[in-house]
Amino acid sequence: MVLTESYDTTEMTEFNALNASLVDGDGHCVYFFPRYMLNMLMHDVQRPELTQLYCVLSGEALNPEHPAHQFFAGRHMRNWEMIGSMNWIVPPSVNEEQFYNLYTLVTSAMDGIENRWLADDSINPIEEWINFSQIIFPEHEWTGFRDPTEREGDDSACLFNLTLSQRESMTN
Fold first, then answer.
1. Residue 168 exposure: Cα atoms within 13 Å on the Cβ side
2. Global pTM value
3. How far apart are CA 161 and CA 147, in angstroms?
4. CA gap 113, 134 in Å, rounded
5. Per residue of the chain (172 residues), what is the pLDDT tens digit?
6. Dihedral-angle region of residue 153 (phi above 0 means left; psi in -120 to 50 means alpha; beta otherwise)
7. Which of 64, 41, 60 is nearest to 51 (CA)?
8. What does the alpha-carbon distance between residue 95 and residue 105 come to, in Å, rounded to a whole number?
9. Do 107 and 132 meet the contact criterion of CB atoms below 8 Å apart?
10. Could you tell me the CA-to-CA distances from 47 to 29, 63, 86, 93, 133 in Å, in that order?
11. What residues pair up with 23 in beta bridges, in sequence order?
12. Which residues contact 155 (CB under 8 A, 6 or more apart)?
């Protein structure tokens, strides 16, 4: 109950998505994955006790007898279903399979950063994430695809054709 009603909430997801989105000139809402993930981390940093509880329970739930085992065993794919259904603008070189792999890499890196931060409060998780982001989302490939602010002043442009979902539907 704590996990589903306090940690993985619809409100948190909507807030993280809202601050990682923009509405293009044609009225399409598009999302920026690197910003979305930064928002998630910033949200977790603001609630360290709940983040610590999540980390402890996820470790304990490795035991199939643990009451939260099924929650954690299925969480990655439940979240992917939601993530995969959103209109993410990504570089043209990123296809759906690569985006799933990127999602998996990013969530794993974020879990690792949070575990290290909770064990050592001298670690600044936001600074670490920004450093990792420069490697995971290299500037030469991701400029214009990392944050809505990179598209400010481009209010009249249609960005929907840059979304993974639109590109995938055109190839099918």
1. 16
2. 0.88
3. 17
4. 15
5. 556 555 555 666 677 788 899 998 889 999 999 999 999 999 889 889 888 988 898 999 999 999 989 988 998 898 899 888 899 999 999 999 999 999 999 999 999 999 999 999 999 999 999 999 999 999 999 999 999 999 877 667 888 888 888 887 776 6
6. left
7. 41
8. 15
9. no
10. 28, 26, 26, 36, 22
11. 29
12. 24, 25
Amino acid at 118: L
* Positive or negative: CA dihedral 13, 18, 20, 21: positive
Identify residue 148 by its one-letter amino acid code. Answer: P
Q: CA 10 to CA 113: how far, in whole Å?
A: 23
Q: Which residues contact 61 (CB under 8 A, 6 or more apart)?
A: 67, 68, 69, 71, 72, 73
Tokens for 121? 């409060």
